[in-house]
Amino acid sequence: MKQALLIVDVQAGLFLADPPPHQAEAVLERINDLAGRARAAAVPVLYIQHDGEPGSLLEPDSLGWQLHPGLQRGAGDWLVHKTASDAFQGTELAPLLRRLGVEELFVSGYATEFCIDTLVRRAASEGFAVRLVGDAHTTKDRPVLSAEQIIAHHNWLLAQLIQPQRPVQVLSAQQVQFSA
């Protein structure tokens, strides 16, 4: 199966905030390592960037909207803009993945309980084989759960989704194997 790496919402306003997301630096390092390994295997790397409402933290062209300056982007990487938690909704993501012949997605980024969860579920429903990189997505503490609890919960929960043809798998960054 042709693969792609998706890097979701790793944007300055979200990662450089005070406080930053849980283990933000380690997650960013893992994402950069994954992207480098994907490129070396000729696997497409796609950045998903959230375009927020006017006046919001992620308003297009604002400092917070920019992709994190620590991301090591490649010249051939793709960029997809979204306006909802669902990266497929009203975007070019599905047509681009189909055009590239992608069947298997490795998912990383921010925020575990919002955009990552929605992307994993939607991608699985769209027929993609989904591999959530369990230590390469993150979030912040929320009023009801800590970030660590949210991440652990979603890693467990998403691996339990009933997808008979292509079950969702949760892998560590070290377990990811890219192949052209």
TrEMBL record:
Residues 4-141 form the Isochorismatase-like domain. The keyword GTP-binding does not apply. The keyword Hydrolase applies. It comes from Pseudomonas benzenivorans. It comes from the Bacteria. Its EC number is 3.-.-.-. GO terms for molecular function: hydrolase activity. Transmembrane segments: none annotated. This is Cysteine hydrolase family protein. Keywords: Hydrolase.
